[in-house]
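Hi everyone,

Forwarding the result from last night's run.
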Amino acid sequence: MIAGNGVDIVEVSRVADRVRKGNGFREKVFSLREIEYCERSANPDENFAARFAAKEAFLKATGMGMLLGYELNEIEISNDENGKPSITLAGKFADFLKEKGWSAIHVSVSHTQTMACAFVIIEK
C-alpha cells in the first residue's frame, strides 16, 4: 500500500551556489558519502542538486515536510552498481520509518545541466 508520494524540482545553480558558500550548508544537508560521491563525479553540481531534490521529495512523501525537524544529512541518496538510486535513513529518520511501519522507499532522480528532479514513493 502506498503511504505517501512526493516530487521536487530544483535549479542546479541554486543548489550549487549554496553548496559553494562554505557556510556549512553542504555538511548540514548531505552525508559524508554523498559529498564524496558528488565531488568525485564529472558533474558535482548536478549530483548535489539531484540529491537535494530527492530529499525534498522524500519529505513531501512523509506528509510532514520539514515539520519533522530532523537533519537532512540523515537522508542519504546513493546509487547501486547499475546507477539505480536508493534512500537510506539514519538517526531520527530511521526511527520515524520504524514508527510509521514503512516497508520500502522508492526514488527516481533525473537531471540536466540546469534542472534536477526527483520522485519518491513510500510503501507501508
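The beta strands are 2-11, 75-79, 85-89, 104-111, 115-123.

Cheers,
N.
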